[in-house]
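Morning. Coffee machine broken again, so started the prediction first thing and wrote up yesterday's gels while waiting. Chain of 382 residues, entered below exactly as on the submission form.
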Amino acid sequence: MRWRNRRYSGQRGAEEMGPPGGFAMLPWLLMGMGAFSNLLQGKTPNPWIGGIGLLVFNSLYISVVFRAFRKEAREAPATRWLLVAMTAVTCGLAIGYGGSWLLFFPLLGLAVGSVVRGRRLGPTVLGLSALAGVIAGVRDGWGAVNVAYGTFISGMVTAAILALSETVRELRETRQELARAAVEKERLRFSRDLHDLLGHTLSVIVVKSEAARRLAPRDMDAALVQISDIESVGRQALTEIREAVTGYREGSLATELDRARSALTAAGIEPVVRQSGPPPAPQTAALLGWVVREAVTNAVRHSNAAHCEITLEGTPERVRLTVADNGRGAKAPASPGGTGLKGLSERLSASGGSLEAGPSPKGGFLVRAQLPVDALQSAPSC
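Came back before lunch.
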């Protein structure tokens, strides 16, 4: 398995998107434009007090929401004191001016929702909404219902969205860590298997080599027997190593189908996989797995498709695999002698099967492979 660090210019995929940052919270300050407009139009008594209060509130809001996206800063006591100061400024402006100044309560709810987590969230937002309702009721009558409701919704929805995004980020990090652990575990298993495979064989070769060296001066026939045994052990070791490495590299058809789904999805192509009939034999499944890998690689690299269907149909005599996309219908030429479509066609033919690849009558590109149930597989070259 190879790890690739993919960097995008201009945009990141959904899988790499993290939680929103403090800048995502800044557009909500436009809710205070009504109060700012009143200041400019001279409709606010004591405008200098109102202007200073507006500046202080905005400064506190920006400070709080940017601290909210760093866990250490969010949980620091200083952040709580900033929220207390915001609450005091909001209450003072709402009591003193009313009207559009009451909309600072929903902004305060946004700040509270971005900072407070856990069991304290509900009581805190409810208490803040009740406070907003009481003050707005004194200043604006029945309009207090809207202010209290807006404060409650802004706080709870903000907290829910940020908590969800943080959970998604943690799950993504956990998944990556588990994948790294799986790779390390597989490497350890592979090295352990090779050690078990070669340790005994090399020990036998060393012992027989020493015996041949000791026997050669006085009994050449016995030494030749030992040398013949060394040759036999070496050939057997080569066969076992090839089998081990081939087993690690080829994998199963189910694994290739899962990788195909992942690759197509990552490339923005909708995968559809259909399977019917009895499962193919291991040799047949291994060959079909290579066909899936090559066809999907071509679809990802060259098709510019939006949809790709992989259909596996099994009968008692033959197995048919079809990979069809709705792309441009043209692919790059296969690599001669490699694992491209041409090489796969030769291997399938040698196993009693066939491979067809070309533009589909319905548009796009079509790869169709057929194999007998008891196909004999030769190890693919790389």
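The CA atoms of residues 58 and 209 lie 84 Å apart. Going to sketch it on the whiteboard this afternoon.
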